[in-house]
Amino acid sequence: MGIISRFFTGSGPSASSPSSLGHSVSDLRQKIYKLETANEKYRARLAERIEMNKTLKNVVDTQKSELNAMRINSRKDLTLERIDTFFTGTKLRLPEEAYQRFLAKCKDNATEDKIKVFREEMDKTQHRAFYEQLFSVEMDMAQGFDFTGLRPIVTFQRGKTDIAYAKSKCMSLDELKANHIQITIERFDEIIKKSFINPKRVNSVCEIGAAWGAATRYMLNRYAPEDYHVYEIDTGWAQWLKDNLGVDSKQCDGESLSETSDNSMDICVASSCLYFMPFVKQWNYLTEFARVLKPGGIAVFNVNLIENTTVRTLKGLLANYFPRRSFGYIPQHCVDTAFPEDKFEKLVKEPAKGFGYQVYRKR
Q: Are 305 and 351 a contacting pair, CB within 8 Å?
């Protein structure tokens, strides 16, 4: 009876009291709450991590953009440095006649207000945009590569550099350039025949691209002219020639002899300089030679002729002058048009055999 009564009164091992059941539910709810809270924290951390990743991605993308911009700007800086090197070493003026024609075209196509603003902007920048186009080929040809230092270099307009180098070595420029001077003497002795011009009548000479004066020295020593005009765009050399050789250094526009009068020169000379220019400028300098020469005066110059160019030459230019791709070649018929046959006598019949030098005498 005792066992049966305990069984029916729920005092056995499988019986649960209301209070213990309530504790179990409460514990379960507490566990669920803790899990939900932990889940919310995890979601919050996950969302924070996602935002952090987005921020990091933006930073990485920004840094990539900045690096690319730096690379581009670095190339731009090198280009600007090249341009600055060219212009800080030159003193140039715009070709007056061509510039006036340009302004006339502007007046035909734009209002006076626009032209005024344009001219003010050009004056403010010292016509930089014009010069960059006018001398783009010359700037390109002024570039070389130093295979010792493995870096681009400027191989043109080196007046101040060469003068300083000679001074540092306690040498005169005649000593520094002795080999070039001797080559010039030998070539000019061979090319400029005594029959071409009477030395006693040579009172005036005009030279372009004189640089350190190899041809200048030759002309001064052989003819002793009273008047010597030099058009040299390198300000370092122009000043040195004026101070040391007594020449009259003229301001350049890069394509004409604007400060030299018609029929005023006995000899015009351009030695190893014309082929640093585009052929249209070469041609214009030659027509200027024709203009300023006196009757009986001679023009002495050398050029690279297209007619003398062979496949071997072209392949050599591609192989040996990388990355330069501008070369100052000119057709012989363009040279001949600068010195028309009825006004000039062609004194060198085969210029290819004379180091490319040609000589014309004004009738």
A: yes
Side chain identity at residue 220, one-letter code? L
131-151 residues labelled b (16+ CB within 10 A) or e (exposed): beebbebbbbbbbeeeeeeee
Tokens representing 83 are 């341009």
278: Cβ contacts below 8 Å, ≥ 6 apart? 137, 326, 328
CA Rg value for the chain: 41
Round to whole Å and give the CA distance between 230 and 242. 9
Residue spans of the domains in the chain: they are 28-62, 159-362
Contact predicate 225/203, CB 8 Å = yes
Could you tell me if 207 and 215 are in contact, meaning their C-beta atoms sit under 8 angstroms apart?
A: yes
Report the alpha-carbon distance of residue 173 to residue 225 in Å, rounded. Answer: 22
Sign of CA dihedral 146, 149, 151, 155: negative
pLDDT in tens, 64-76: 777 766 655 555 5
- Specify whether the CB–CB gap between 89 and 234 falls below 8 A: yes
And the tokens for 355? 């180091």
> For tokens 């005498």, what's the residue?
361
Neighbours of 169 (CB within 10 A): 10
Sign of the torsion formed by the C-alpha atoms of 36, 41, 45 and 47: positive
Q: What is the DSSP letter of 200?
A: G
Cβ(242)–Cβ(228) below 8 Å: no
State pLDDT tens for residues 105-117.
999 999 999 999 9
CATH topology of domain 159-362: Rossmann fold (3.40.50)
Strand, helix or coil at 130? helix
Residues paired with residue 346 on neighbouring β-strands, in sequence order: 360
Q: Please give the DSSP secondary-structure letter assigned to residue 10.
A: T
> What tokens were used for 246?
């007594």
Structure pTM? Answer: 0.77
